[in-house]
Amino acid sequence: MASTGTPTSSSPWGSLQIPRPIQQLFNRFPLVTYNANNLPARTQALTSSNLPTLHVFSTDEDALEGLPSFNPTCLKWQTLLRLTKTPHRILPSTNHASPTGALPFLLPPQSTSSSTKPIPASLLSAYATKHGAIPLPSSSSATKEETYLSLLTPIRNAFLYALYLDPKYSSLLDRLYIHPSSSSTLVRKTLRYQLRSAAAASILQSRSLHPDSGREQIDGEAVFAEAQEALEALAGVLNEREGWFFGNERPGEFDAAVFGYAHLILSFMDEEKGLGRVLREVGEGAIVGHWKRVKIEAGWDI
Amino acid sequence: MASFLGTDGIAGPAGANTTTEPAHHKAYQGPTHMLDEHYLTPAAIASVEIHGATNTRRSLLDHVIKPLVADPAGSNSTLGEVLDRIGVATRKLSRFDIFKEDAFNVFISEAKKSETALPSDKAELDVSIRVKEKSRLVFSAGTDFGNAEGSAYTNAVIRNIFGGAETLSVNASTGTRTRSAYNATLTSPLNGNPDLRLALDVLRSSTQKPWASHEEQLTGGNLRFSWLSNRNETHTVTYSGVWRQLTSLASTASPTVRADAGDSLKSSISHSYTRDRRDNPMLPQSGYLLRAVSELAGWGPLQGDVSFAKYEVEGSGAVPVSIPGVKGNTGISIGAGFRCGALYPLPMGYSLTGPAQPSRINDRFQLGGPTDVRGFKLGGLGPHDGTDSVGGDIFAAGSVNMLLPLPRTGADSPLRLQLFANGGRLVALQNKGGVEKEGGKRPLAMGSNAVFNSVKSAVGELGNGLPSVAAGVGLVYAHPVARFELNFSLPLVLRKGEEGRKGLQVGVGINFL
């Protein structure tokens, strides 16, 4: 549209005024307005809650009890909400439901505000600060935090490698991520393939390889060795300072993140070898000690 | 090359006594005036030849031609009956959709009598049918109108692949709402009968559903068996397995839509029945349409992730209105339509009493829109979560309309003035039997008694108060491809959350309520 004309009317319809009597006549319609229709049973069962709902990977039963999610990132934020005593409940969900394409996200209850815009994970710590009963520890220097966060990447890679690419855990992968999506064998096969490719691509990318170069390019030994180094570094830090990371008074976001991995590795991976063994052994059980402390702080009886 | 069929050997088309070669429509209609007097002459078919069916298997043609030659009535058939039978056979051939319609030629000639035959014997006829096969490979591209959606497509059709009138059609399209759709369909007549068809199709599509803030991606296949009954009713039985992915939610998507996001596989068997007795489907002025669709998903051996029974019926009819003193068709008609449907959640597996999952948004009905209940937005009726139309399990809708010709254009033009009123109710099942656990946590699944009570009370809810109604006036233009409507309407009765439309609304589609 040419915008060279008068700025008052951008569209030919804009200048068209409905005559007042007709406007008044229109306003009489509809003649009768009844109460709203009730929402479907599924909606009422799943979404009618006065609590903000954290959408995570979980099972129906676990979600009802508020048990830990089986996804490290979801568990991190779930733990953070618990640590800050931010009121919430959890609902099993899928990445499709998330505004960012990845879980978790928080949906505020409908009653409080007219808009129910979801809160993505990146804004959850601000949300917890605002709505939580216990404040988060003030964050330390950004560079320090970044260094620590970079230690999580190798652990994440090793966890992804074990769960998605190691055939030893394929039945675990099925139970956690594949079977809840669909009961159909074909759909499950497709999803498994897609998830495995995505996990491989993600590992490759973080190791500065091209994401399409194929999972054969991933050196499992190296991935595991890097994770071991990172875990040792984290355990070293914890051994120096008995309590929480960054020497904080209370556990914070980084503690929740480490707990996210530690809890899942301890729950699902055996102590004989691999990640399960390393995590239990590093720094004379420093990480396990930290995991126990976070568990108590978060009020989990598991 | 030609396929020769016959009982008494092969006779050439030479020596034609009677040659009928009118335009194709007449050719199928059998007798012409010239033949009237010979109608009752005893006659039988000696041989039938088909020329030009180069790529067609003989066995397919046999199915059509054999009954012609077999002469079940013995020696008593007359010329008239024989011509009728030839007409039936050629019509059947043309329904295979592998021969050019305007290239059908039927030659009938008297066969040379064998020397042993008695002189008073009936006429023995040689029939020669000339056909031209349609090209086997056709590419096309164009635009299409479906209900409330326009699209552009490219299509490739391979006809008569194995010589048995099998057709493979590969289609790719993109539209205003369908972001992309690909499908391939292989159709074959069964038992050489063009009215009995088996079709297998695979599809992949991704469709935006703005009324519920999401996009649905489908990947799956259907096996369809359809037939035309003697009373000209279409029946289709379909097995369908579709993986549905509800994804790409809008940032404003409601909790209901978010809760239903993700994967589900629907494995269902359905039957649809159509009896169309309308004079013109785009602008019916007389006649009626009946349609019923029933679907069973997930129960018993069907498996899948959703389990329900779904039933939908639709009826519409129109009667022409005559005005005293005006001869013939006035172009005025009154029509009415009614639709209703129900979704009944079922337990998975073979149980009838086990717990059943309440329906998901992609299985529930939607109601409202310019081609549906006019005067409402798409999916404007029924339960709404925020601005999302989340659908319902039970619905009923009806419409009445009057079509009037415009003053200048007259009754024969495809333009009409329309006065209409329509309305409906769309209700979702409530979990009536759900016992609330402590802390307000409700179990998702419903027991069989709960389902029954919920359906009962939802049906009762249909009659609670007036239905949501809108009325208006508009113009209708019936193009052979689609019907266009421009209506001005006002909502009369609404429920909170339902989205009526005050003012103008454009409708383009094939099926209107």
TrEMBL record, chain A:
Domain Metaxin glutathione S-transferase: 227-280
Domain Thioredoxin-like fold: 72-168
Membrane-spanning ranges: none
InterPro entries: Metaxin_GST, Mito_Protein_Transport_Metaxin, Thioredoxin-like_fold
GO annotation (BP), single: mitochondrion organization
CC per GO annotation: SAM complex
Name of a matching Pfam family: GST_N_4
Protein name from the UniProt record: Mitochondrial outer membrane protein
The organism of origin for this protein: Cladorrhinum samala
TrEMBL record, chain B:
Matches recorded under InterPro entries: Bac_surfAg_D15, D15-like
Topological category with respect to the lipid bilayer: Multi-pass membrane protein
GO biological process, one term: protein insertion into mitochondrial outer membrane
Main location: mitochondrion
Keyword line: Membrane, Transmembrane, Transmembrane beta strand
Cell location: Mitochondrion outer membrane
Chain spans, region Disordered: 1-27
Domain Bacterial surface antigen (D15): 160-512
Family: Belongs to the SAM50/omp85 family.
Protein's name according to its UniProt entry: Surface antigen-domain-containing protein
Source organism per UniProt: Cladorrhinum samala
Organism classification: Eukaryota, Fungi, Dikarya, Ascomycota, Pezizomycotina
